[in-house]
Amino acid sequence: MKSLGILCILVACAGTGIYMAMRLRNQFRQYQKLLAFLEDCAVYIRYQGLPLQELFAILAEHPDYEGLDFLGKLKKSELSFQISPEILWTEAIQNSMIPLEAKQILRNLGHELGKTDTQGQLAVLELYQTQMQMAYEQFRTGYQKKSRLYQSLGWLGGAMLAVLLI
Q: Do residues 114 and 85 make contact, with C-beta atoms less than 8 angstroms apart?
């Protein structure tokens, strides 16, 4: 019975390390999706001149952006044209599950998007694409190290507890 408890502790610690590594992998994928999202925003604004509500609705239905939960919130609120896109954007980003640095970049983007002509919006999108790319690169270097570290710590912590309990 004791060995079964020790095995459970080992598996629980290892599972915790694997879970933390998976959370990092999910954030990594979200950064990739956000970069593609910002590029698509620029393309739709440049070539179709879509208003923001229509842009949000189109991108919310895009299958590549399923993991970006704030787009679904923007689409659900498309009926409320009385509320400015800036407020809708801020509320959707605030409750989103994206990484904190990406959330701050998108929050700043929402304060500027839709306030200028097409060229101004494209310039703003280019600026925030650059910021998101830098945040992505910074996250990527830490992600590779931390992912292996979390998994190793989980296994080693579980093994240490197992040895102590034997």
A: yes
